[in-house]
Amino acid sequence: LIQRVHQVLAVTGIETAKLCGDDNAQAMLLEEAILNACEANRALKQQEKSARKARRQAAASQRREQKAQAKNAAALPALKKRAWFAHELTVAYLVEAQKMMRGHTALIERGYYERIVVKEKDAALALQEHLLRMEEYRQRIARLSQREQHARDDIATEQLKEH
């Protein structure tokens, strides 16, 4: 304890030689020095705690930003691929519908009219579903492209601020 008091006093600038007497003023001086050292230590710990918290928050924010950018970058090619497949399916359904229309007359002559109407309705519904899906994919791609562009703009702005 005495060694610790000497360390505290050394930090506060009070020499132990001044504290050798039994004077009441010297005891008060010692008490004040210890209280000042404790307060300074408490303030230093609080500053360190605040600095650690700020570093943690900054790192977490940076990780969230990187994760969001990676997610957007990863999602865009998959959506483009899905949109391409939807487009291919739409083309395939259009070709199928054209074939059905060409064969329509021959099948009517053979007496299969009811079946053709059902097939055409099914093809029309499927085509409509695929067109809706394709439009949804186009909208998603547009949103992701817009997000990616905003991210690029933000990065460029940050780089300009740094320079």
From TrEMBL:
- Keywords assigned by UniProt, alphabetized: Coiled coil
Coiled-coil zones: 44-71, 127-154
Q: What is this protein called?
A: Uncharacterized protein
**Which species does this protein come from?**
Neobodo designis (Flagellated protozoan)
